[in-house]
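User: My collaborator sent over this chain with a note saying "see what the structure looks like." That's all I know about it. Can you take a look?
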Amino acid sequence: MNSQVVISADIILLKGDLLFSTIISVREALEKAIDQTDKDCVLDFAGVDRVDSSAVSLWLCLERKTRSRHLSLKAVNIPDELSSIVSLVGLNQTALNP
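Assistant: Without extra context I'll predict from the sequence alone. Here is the result:
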């Protein structure tokens, strides 16, 4: 399945798969969205079907990006798969929402 980034008000909705094969285009779209806002960002994972470890890398990149712009980044509707990967790689759930 293709991945989509849908921006609505202050929420960025992710749809589809966050996999190694799709993550570059998703990252580019999200970084562009962050560059074009001066508001804190909420990343909604409700539409995500599948994830792999590249989704954790994506989150960490976006966190650095928002911090560099003095914005905050919050995750909502985090898939269980992503929470499991975060734990597996030695991070804890606060890595997604410090």
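A starting point for your reply to your collaborator: The helical segments are 23-35, 54-68, 80-88.
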